[in-house]
Amino acid sequence: MNYPFNAFRKGDISSNELIRQMIVFETTSQSQSQSEKPFISKEQDIQSLDNLLEELNELIGLKKVKVLVNEMIAYTEMQQIRRNAGLQSAPLVLHMIFKGNPGTGKTTIARLLGKIFCAMGILKKGHLIEIERADLVGEYIGHTAQKVKQQVKDALGGILFIDEAYSLARGGEKDFGKEAIDALVKAMEDHKDELILILAGYMEEMDEFLQINPGLQSRFPIHIDFEDYTIEELIDISELMVEQKEYVLSKSAKAKLYSLLASKKKRDGINSGNARLVRNLIEKAIRKQAVRLRHKSIYTRDDLMILLRNDFDFTEGEN
Ligand SMILES: Nc1ncnc2c1ncn2[C@@H]1O[C@H](COP(=O)(O)OP(=O)(O)O)[C@@H](O)[C@H]1O
Ligand SMILES: [Mg+2]
């Protein structure tokens, strides 16, 4: 059977069509055991997987992430189908490491992956529990195990996402962080079919953390690097954000935003390709626009929507 996968990758057929064709293969396959459940049975699941993949691909930038995520999804699908076809399949270990600066889309992708794996039938719920050190590390003996247990319990059926994961290893000898790591490793084993664990944080810190804890590295087969956004990508993201809020950027406002981002990049270098910064700038501009409009007695629908250059005039230190 020649899977129509290449056609899907090239965009010639939709993921809906791909999955349909794969199901046809599965139900006609000689080697399929009758007792095995079909890979995806409900029309609504197929539909929502299609929508979610579209949502992923519509995100601005993240090119390498999208390629890798698409590959991972395809691989996971194929392993399930191979298993159902009686072929050898690799175990689906989907614990991941996300490396990148703040605001590069790590949480956004994790949330979407939860939904995608849920639509694929790999996770029961697909929700995201996002936590950090303080949510896991306790203050007295026994406290940490209890905290980790609770977080794992809340995350079952979904994704447990630990931001700045290396901070677990930073407390020194008497710290309970190490205990949290051990408890997490145990939970990964105990609940390997019910939970995906994602450790996230800055690139260098994550690398160092994994080097110090070599046992961890092998438990996380998927590593995804989130690069800083370019200024052009940040502008696209800002347009998407204002559109979602039913605002628009005037041409000169866009130019002003561009120069704000460019000077920030020049000043700060690292950590300037940050979509959260863009979100904050837009929210600030929206507040400034509100104040500006309040001083006018009449305004049109367009006035209510448009963000002008002046709305992005922030005083020093404000951005
Ligand atoms: N590629 C993108 N397209 C549109 N919005 C994005 C994109 N990446 C990030 N954002 C937005 O930027 C903000 C920060 O993203 P987030 O995923 O929280 O980053 P991180 O977890 O890496 O700090 C969120 O509001 C998110 O919606
Ligand atoms: Mg985040």
From TrEMBL:
SMART domains named in the record: AAA
Stored InterPro entries: AAA+_ATPase, AAA_lid_6, ATPase_AAA_core, CbxX/CfxQ, CbxX/CfxQ_RuBisCO_ESX, P-loop_NTPase
Annotated source species: Alkaliphilus metalliredigens (strain QYMF)
Protein's name in the database: AAA ATPase, central domain protein
Keyword field contains Lipid metabolism: no
KW Cytoplasm (keyword) present: no
Protein family membership: Belongs to the CbxX/CfxQ family.
Limits of the AAA+ ATPase domain: 92-230
Any one GO MF annotation of this record: ATP binding
High-level lineage: Bacteria, Bacillati, Bacillota, Clostridia, Peptostreptococcales
Annotated keywords: ATP-binding, Nucleotide-binding
Signal sequence extent: none
